Amino acid sequence: MAISANAILTQAMLGLNNGAFYAMLSLGLAVIFGLLNIVNFAHGAFYMLGAFVALIGLTQLGPWLGMPDLQINFWWALLIAPLVVGLLGILIERTLLRRLYGLDHLYGLLLTFGVALVLQGFFTNFYNTAGTPYPGKPEILDGVVNLGFMYFPKYRLFALVVSLLVCFATWYLIERTKLGAILRAGTEKPKLVEAFGVNVPLLITLTYGFGVALAAFAGVLAAPIYAVSPLMGADLIIVVFAVVVIGGMGSIMGAIVTGLALGMIEGVTKVVYPPAASTVVFLIMALVLLVRPAGLFGKE
Amino acid sequence: MKNSTLALAVAAALSAGTAQAQISGDVVKIGVLTDMSGVYAALSGQGSVIAAQMAIEDFGGKVLGKPIQLVSADHQNKADIGSATAREWIDQQGVDMITDLVTSSVGIAVQRLASAKGVITMNTSAGSTALTNAECTELGIHYAYDTYALAVGTANPIIQSGGKKWFFITADYTFGHSLESNAADVVKANGGQVVGGVRHPFPNNDFSSYLLQAQGSGADVIGLANAGQDFTNAVKQAGEFGIGRGKQQLVGLLVFSSDVKSLGLKAAEGLQFTDSWYWDMNDETRAFAQRFFERAKAMPTSPQAAVYSSVTQYLKAVEAAGTDNGKAVRAKLGEMVMNDVYHKNAKLRPDGRVMHDMYLMKVKSPQESKSEWDLLKIVDTIPAEKAFLPLEKSQCPLVKKQ
Prior knowledge:
Chain A is mainly alpha-helical. Chain A is 70% helix and 2% strand.
């Protein structure tokens, strides 16, 4: 089959769409690693939880509470799911992760991996692993937009734009504002920053909660596109970790740019050489590690 | 000690052979091995267990004076898990017959293993024609439908109405390959052309990139050689991108009523496909479906009805053979004419294929539908000899020997 420019453009656009999810998830991972030094393997599970909060809120919560008319719609879910899941993240940080800060990275990794397995296992007990469709896509986002080279579903375009906005807002918050400066200083020299009267432990807790909330937000955005499944996070997290490694552990801009770029590369590979589509990310990771062990945007 | 046990065993065997029926372990055990939580759970899964339970109850719970027991397990669509479960069932629990066996890769593995151990398999839910061809076994029975019947039943009318150029989106495992190759044969035999294809991982959630490739291929028909939730996801996402609404036609090669139910009539209206059974065919099927619905909260799919039928016919054969010995029961099944709620005048061929009519169905429009489960109408009946691969073309070594 001949490869037309149009085919490449359409697949790149789809890839960019996937890339936006990679970017948002790897961004949360980068924030958590950059500021807390925790390799958060539970990130995929929090993404999955976000989608489930949206699904349960829409279809099950009302009947459970004896109010069949109560439905948390998509827009509310975008707000509520990150809050609920973020709070759970804070709880986990306060009760579990906090005890590991003095130890090797490995312990944090093992703990969060365990948390992810528990959450996945819990949901696998009650929900179809093949995925349950999320029926709450807002009507205003039904239909397609003509982009000139292709018809693109309105909802996917919406998800793409929103994720980009969230990514760059987060980057701005951490790299360009005073709050961000305090955060970065607090992780580098906690004692000194505390001497200025800043409550560093609280700051760290909130940062973890924020990173987790980002994952949940991505989960809600993903729910109408992909089916909601207990394993949706586990499927994605491996690619997302590759993104973080390629971008440079802890680099926020690195995570965003790499996420988007890899999504597109993956999409284009689907046209050029389909069998390589699922491995191309890891090929790039291996190459980057050989040439720049700290990642494309990493310092050192 | 050893001698006395041996003597006892010989005595028991002798007396059993003469005076009473031979039932291994004094119980007839039937196993439903299926997909309980994955993409095929809705079309087989728990519903198949319920159907088997109903068959046993309707039979009276006993055969040749011995109790009938049911076991069930989830094979997660993985051949290794399916084989391990089947081995444990046969070796440790004395299971005499295994049914459902959705997912062709699992079906083939378990059929081979069970037959070698003298246990009958009655596959009601997997599709690959390999089960009765290259992979056929002495005791393996392919009960409900196969990919040949689907291809012939569904592709023929579409090609005749002008859909000449085909592009396949195929689930990348035994069943998908089998369905694609059968359909491609039908397309070519009728003067059509296969312009391209793409294979997706099984199971898969995001079909957008495959669908866009299909859209750009210039094909008249996009053939979906997948099933269950893979199929419904693909159709929904095609709708998102506006694919299949214009001159290009989207065709599901394997569709079950559960898929239509999950898509909704608005999305599925007009879809044509081939199936072996529908709950709303006559008074007998409606009565059965109603009883099933009370337990399962869903109408039975064709594989679930076939599970009911396979268990019923198996038990009849055990009764007629006077034993649950695999070979003897298989021989009886080969002589019987099967009549029940699922099929009429059905016969079992030496390659393991059960011959019965298939039906071309069409999804009703929302206006035509009178109730929640009023989904399909039957457009055409495809007689058994036209629906299935003729015996002389079978690659099954058991057939050649005869």
